[in-house]
Design brief:
CATH class of the largest domain: Mainly Beta
CATH superfamily of the largest domain: FAS1 domain
CATH architecture of the largest domain: Roll
Order of helices and strands: HHHHEHHHEEEEEEHHHHEHHHEEEEEE
């Protein structure tokens, strides 16, 4: 059986299978081969690089970027979504076996316990399989173990495959501010919240309901008022405007009714119209029920302007405003190596 397996792997290696630089420990080999860029990013995000640089020995069944792409397509999620998954570490540990298991050590239907604690099953026939994945390159020797390259990501039995469920679980662990920071369409809103010193408030327990204007909504307001973003941020009544977008309590879309009025933290009320979609005052809700750990966000397409807001002339020479970037104010760092992968996308439910 061992001779048959060794011959089969030798044949595999003759059919345009990529060659890999194999020098150093397991992490070194993965980092020096471009086919493993997503794997390295995932190991970085899950804080497992240090473990796989240890003495071991380890056997790693390493999915290629193409394997990860197939998984992302099947789940209809992005690489950023996967990297933010709460079970990411478990998925990665499901690819690692303690000890140095070479191709010649494998036999048909043998099982091996992974560092996740769940077994994987080996199949030996016309090819070598690990569960449903196929070994495309075997026996990449490292100083602390061995790597076998596979063409599919190994998915443990308790992994939540539903993209919608995954996003709901991930989002509900994040505060309203965290979610706003993770979505570029709210960058102007986050800057204004920081300028008005309201960030800490919206990171509190709440719960809060936030009607969150997009960047496009702020651009439309600036054009209507004929002012610059710096002039808006310097307005004395800025906090009043922002608090007019926040309601105490968690108000879901199913809690709204036509003509309903809700008091905001500004002290004034907003009124809902459900005759043609959902409107909050004159703005339209374009995405609803983005759940957070401390409330819910509804996305709107226009700024809610309270009746007591007065546009004032401001002297920008004495009023500093924050830079366009907000990451230095409230960091949301996701170490992704050199990939530059997109930040976590938000699943939005549109009103009918």
């Amino acid at each position: 059986m061992k001779k048959t397996l060794a011959l089969m792997i030798a044949l595999l290696l003759t059919f345009n299978i990529p060659t890999y630089a194999a020098e150093g420990d397991i992490v070194d080999i993965a980092a020096n081969n471009e086919d493993f860029s997503i794997l390295v990013a995932a190991l970085t995000e899950a804080d497992l690089l240090g473990a796989l640089q240890g003495d071991g020995p380890f056997t790693v069944f390493a999915p290629t970027d193409e394997a990860f792409t197939k998984l992302l397509d099947s789940l209809n999620i992005t690489a950023g979504d996967l990297l933010a998954h709460p079970q990411l570490s478990e998925v990665l540990l499901y690819h690692v076996v303690s000890g140095k298991v070479l191709s010649t050590d494998l036999s048909d239907q043998m099982t091996a316990t992974t560092l996740k604690g769940e077994d994987i099953t080996v199949g030996v026939g016309s090819s070598v399989t690990i569960n449903s994945s196929t070994v495309v390159t075997a026996d990449l020797m490292a100083t602390n173990g061995v790597i076998h390259v596979i063409d599919e990501v190994l998915v443990p039995s308790d992994f939540v495959l539903s993209a919608e469920t995954m996003m709901e679980e991930t989002m509900t662990e994040k505060s309203i501010v965290d979610i706003a920071l993770a979505d570029s369409q709210f960058s102007m809103l986050v800057m204004l919240l920081q300028k008005a010193d309201l960030v800490s408030a919206l990171q509190g327990d709440g719960p809060f309901t936030v009607f969150a204007p997009t960047n496009d909504a702020f651009v439309a307001l600036l054009e209507a008022l004929n002012i610059t973003p710096e002039q808006l941020m310097a307005q004395p009544d800025l906090a009043k405007v922002l608090l007019y977008h926040v309601v105490s309590g968690k108000v879901m879309s199913t809690d709204l009714s036509d003509g309903l009025s809700a008091p905001t933290l500004n002290g004034e009320t907003i009124t809902f119209d459900l005759k043609d979609g959902v409107k909050a005052n004159a703005s339209t809700v374009i995405a609803a029920d983005i759940s957070a750990s401390n409330g819910v966000i509804h996305v709107i397409d226009a700024i809610l302007v309270p009746s007591d807001f007065t546009l004032q002339e401001v002297d920008l020479s004495v009023d500093e405003v924050p830079e366009a970037g907000v990451s230095s104010v409230i960091p949301l760092a996701i170490p992704l190596g050199g990939l530059g992968l997109a930040a976590l996308a938000i699943t939005k439910k549109k009103f009918k």
